[in-house]
Amino acid sequence: MRRFALPFVASLSLVLAGCNNHSMSLDLTPNPLVVGVLDTQATVHAHAVARGFGKIPIGSLQFAVYNAADTELASQTQAVDQSVPTSPLGIVVDKDFTFPINGAIVALSGMKYIMVRVLGPGGDVIAARRLDVVVHVLKDLPIPPVVKPTTTPSH
To answer: How far apart are CA 106 and CA 33, in angstroms?
Structure first.
């Protein structure tokens, strides 16, 4: 009996003490993100789950663009400065992000993916997800019919 009481008391004391033992997972959809050559914006759905006790302090979001050789082409960091509540079962945060993107520049630059990182106040990575980007040349382009069906005259 004593062997089972010790872990229970230890975990209860962590909860009562407000321990900040937590984690966050991040998922992005659609993945891969299909971009047309003429596209000027894209929308991505972010699904984050915060588990643990206390709150997760978030300092910023970082978006880094990479090519096929895993060389960083560009990076942008946006300050957030918020705290996300957690729960042992998980607190879910769903949000859509629409951002400018130029399909032609993506194709010409050799961009292959974006690393999205959630950073803590000290710059530590709390969660990260790779978002692959595919350029589809014919996406949303009006394509004229090459072959037109004709009706055969009936005799």
So the answer is: 12
- Model pTM greater than 0.85? no
Identify the CATH class of 22-136.
mainly beta
List the chain domain ranges: 22-136
Would you write out the chain's pLDDT as a tens digit for each of its 155 residues? 445 454 444 444 444 444 558 899 999 999 999 999 889 999 999 999 999 999 999 999 999 999 999 999 999 999 998 999 999 999 999 999 888 889 999 989 999 999 999 999 999 999 999 999 999 876 655 656 665 666 666 66
d(CA 123, CA 146): 55
